[in-house]
Batch of 4 targets.
Target 1
Amino acid sequence: MEWVYIEDLKGHIDKDIEIRGWLYNKRSSGKIRFLLVRDGTGLLQGTIYSPDKDHPLFQTFDTLTHESSLILRGKVREDKRAPGGLEMGITEIEVLQVAEDFPITPKEHGTSFLMDHRHLWLRSSKQHAVLEIRTELIKAIRDFFDGRGFRNLDTPILTPSACEGTTTLFETEYFDQKAYLSQSGQLYNEATAMAFGKVYCFGPTFRAEKSKTRKHLIEFWMVEPEVAFATLADIKKLGEELIVSIISRVLETKKEALDALERDTTLLQGIKAPFPQITYEDAIRLLNEKGNSISFGDDFGSPEEAAISEHFDSPVCVTHFPAVIKAFYMQPAEGRPDLVLGLDVLASEGYGEIIGGGQRIHDLVLLEEKIKEHGLPREAYEWYIDLRKYGSVPHSGFGMGVERMLSWLCGIKHIRETIPFPRLLYRIYP
Ligand code: 4AD
Ligand code: MG
């Protein structure tokens, strides 16, 4: 008998087939027994009918517990009443294991209990729906860049120097040297962009951030495009198009998962490019008007980002930040050397920053000054400085955090549910 995944059942109606999965639920009603089975791709209801109350399949049915692993054999038929519109008339049950009492039950569990059982929690319908959307999001990102001729060139995870400041670096041994886990592939992207024109890297990044918020992971995935000859305006447009393309793809293909999350997608459906653009100074004024006492030179925290983002129905682009709060590589604004051409895209509905990037310094002397000003060891950046000696051009790029984007798409409050095994401040188990 052919082994078929539940999501592929439509092509096997009225055929005898085999489903391999885990028991999700069971119930009985008179002469019928119902088994609800999940196989990772969907849920299928199987039925056993017999007037004989001692039917051998009924006896097997009685032994099965939640999460027991089994193989069901039988014929699949259409049935409007069944979840998914299909049902299997079971002729055989092969039990692989009768599961022990499953620790996660329909009753409410505390967060720390669920996090301790993350390896099992993944099977719950909501967690499953989020991660289903995650896989689609990753495909949508790759299709977007691959479809535009970007070259996917991944950057190293073990690095000799910092990209995003030295305070959040994970240090490790590299034989007789020190190495750091990558905070961003950007600096290497700048080198590959000069070799390939337009590139992206896509991988895990690490920040030893001592902030315990709903938006920070210690290990997260970031996609980072970098484009030679592109300005701030060019990269802003690229970011907007990426976001619009991801949203439309997920709305189109993951409706069932979004419904399982009870996500109200009204605002997402209305999102169009270009997004409103404000400068950092506009944002400060807006915040002050709303009663926030932030002043020029302060970085936005979560409350500020949320307040700005709630002011708009669409994601919003913030540009022209004070140089003092941004990284060493940012291009100063024309006529305002105290501002840099950074770009942050804040998601709507209070979700805050999902994209960070901007235009990079391309002038050799200026870059050398900035490296010195930021107290960075020049030797470690010698190769990066080289890029400004051999055909230097203006260039721009950004990073988009997969988990931040996914939280917003799914309408999830805490980022820990957007990655199979989150690394959080003080949590590395399981
Ligand atoms: O704004 P960030 O720090 O920018 C950079 O790393 C640039 N070097 C990227 C570039 O220009 N190539 O981070 C970019 C994005 C943020 O907007 C956010 O979506 C995500 O990465 N991010 C985090 N996501 C989860 N947990 C954290 N601790 C994150 N820190 C940043
Ligand atoms: Mg940022």
Target 2
Amino acid sequence: MPERRRPYVAGNWKMHKTVAETAAYMDELKRVLPADPPADVGVCVPFTALAAAVEAARGTAIKVCAQNMHQQAQGAYTGEISAPMLVELAVNGVVLGHSERRQYNCETDRALQDKVPAALAAGLEPILCVGETEEERDGGETERRLRHQVQEALEKVPPEQLGDVVIAYEPVWAIGTGRVATAAQAQEAIAFIRALVGDRSKEAAERVRVLYGGSVKPDNAAEILSQPDVDGALVGGASLDPNDLAAIVAACG
Ligand code: PGA
């Protein structure tokens, strides 16, 4: 029997919180989290708040992640941030391919193909986001879309490293809408994503953590997190309150 995957609950703050607000948030999060939480806990914070979040998380198990990264280590890419810059700040991971970046910032599967291995090579844990739009779901295109996103983004990751990637299944129609996927929808899509990883490596499929994201709140988390293939949650709006994030972590227990 393979070891149970440890759940992971990551809060995606998006474009919220100044340095001062970050320090206050982290104080509160440390106060409300139990000493031995039933899940890994992470916060994905704006670039400007990374140093403050890392400082506040020192000596705790809280992971600090960036929300994007360029695939090159350096170069003429105005406004971009590279993996070595994040590593220097002792950041633990990075969200890649969030649907808001795909929608508003021209993030492509082609760039993700280089971003995911670049993060891994630098020692950053990538949280790769995938998910279909409402139109794609209604048109019966969910699996085709997920297959394309997962296969393309992971194409250059060697099989033995696939299990180190965290994947977040985030149906676009559920993000920030209050319309959470049903537990059955989340389980079905996440089992499909795990099977796609399994096409590359059976061992990686057992090990890879696949999270659900999209309107996760304290009152709906337990049902989704109880699904056998759902290994945690990427939480947007609700993560802005450390008490709500802690309540979602508790729902993993
Ligand atoms: P939401 O966002 O929880 O506010 O729906 C999730 C995400 O975008 O990661």
Target 3
Amino acid sequence: MEKNKLKTVIFDLDGVVTDSAKYHYLAWKELADELKIPFDEEYNEKLKGVSRMESLELILENGQACDKYTPEEKEELAFRKNENYKELIKQITPEDILPGILPFLKELKEADIRIALASVSKNAPFIVHQLEIEDYFDYIADAASVPNAKPFPDIFLAARDEFGFDSSECVGVEDAKTGIEAIHRAGMKAVGVGTPDQMTEADLLITTDQLSLSGVLEAFQMR
Ligand code: B16
Ligand code: MG
């Protein structure tokens, strides 16, 4: 197999394609306030790329409240947060695509490089629809059918296997520490576009408006 050729770029959604992370924060904040649990933007960093139920556990942990609720009550709390989140993301429009993402997607399409989405968010298809970028994606991984969330590599491997590529031919783009770890565990190179202190393990640390095909090819010595 011809290695070192870029065949697919696998994008995370929240914090990479659009800033839906801010809506996750607002929705969790409302719940945390209601439960009288301290929660701020700094603590919210821990939730990026983390699944819904694990995020709830982290929030409850911050208020020493993990044992306060039954599994059914926790399901109900997560459900309420998600209902609130779904209301908030209705306001997302194509104007919310982060700078540089659209030109990068166009560049990849023109170069016939597959484009995949590896978001652990069950709301990802709705957000992609709101952003009107469905046509760019050759594959959107189904978060619900992936056994293990990030930092496990499952969702990135699902995208790779969809096309039958080798990990060395795939590049992942992430804004969360757990996501960078998931990309590496999938054996792929990782582009980090998140806050620099969370991106220490990224192979290439840039901002979304610096994303370019030539930049990725050069950084990873790919063709
Ligand atoms: P949902 P990503 C992740 O999306 C978010 O970063 C994380 O904050 C969220 O808890 C998770 O999705 C689950 O989302 O509750 O909508 O299913 O970064 O993998 O695109
Ligand atoms: Mg993310």
Target 4
Amino acid sequence: MGVIDTVRDERLKRMLQQIDTEAGYTASYTGRQKFDERVMAAMAAVPREKFVPDDLKPFAYNNEPLPIGYGQTISQPYIVALMTDMLDLTPEKSVLEIGTGSGYQAAVLSLLAKKVYSIEKIPELAESASKRLQQLAYDNIETRCCNGYRGWQEKAPFDAIIVTAAATHIPSVLVEQLKPAGRMLIPVGLPYMPQELMLVTKDEQGASQSRSILDVAFVPLVVEEGENEGASQEQD
Ligand code: SAH
């Protein structure tokens, strides 16, 4: 019996079934016909309705992104499951997330890794996510409010990095913060255009490779205060 069969709540069950169906449809791109049962169990365990604004709670288990204020969104559940699955987390691993948003993705990660570090640049979102995660007793998540474009040097290196906002390129400083054999998922493309979800892998010798997984649509990753990456002159 799979995780989905054990779920009682009908709306949650439907969300998990939709994730499972979409995983099947996209298998030729992702290489994964089904997501790991531990990932599905984490998706079943985290109450998404606690991470969305009150007026959107009726839609919390729809397989779609929802606005969380400040022009930002909580990602589509299928995308959360896909990105989580592709990180190949195990209970001893550490993971860095850039773009805490509501804290939902961080909560899912926290059930699969030893330690989650998550950075959010909008103070109001950072504060409400951190409070929410504390209230829900996700104790292995450390949050920080700052620009995460340069990662979290003091806590690096990480086994996995997940960027939940779209960058125009893969920031080399983030690749540097990956451990050998580490994995990073990052949407790459122009703001408000379809982007490519990229998987960056590092081998045991520290050489990195990237490949495109599939098209996604994320809010932009901000490079420096007041500008987005498209406008930046910065070179990596
Ligand atoms: N993972 C979130 C959704 C992320 S939406 C969730 O589960 O709810 C993308 C988030 O990235 C937004 O909250 C946005 O403010 C944040 N963000 C964008 N650029 C950033 C940066 N440079 N550093 C930190 N956070 C950033």
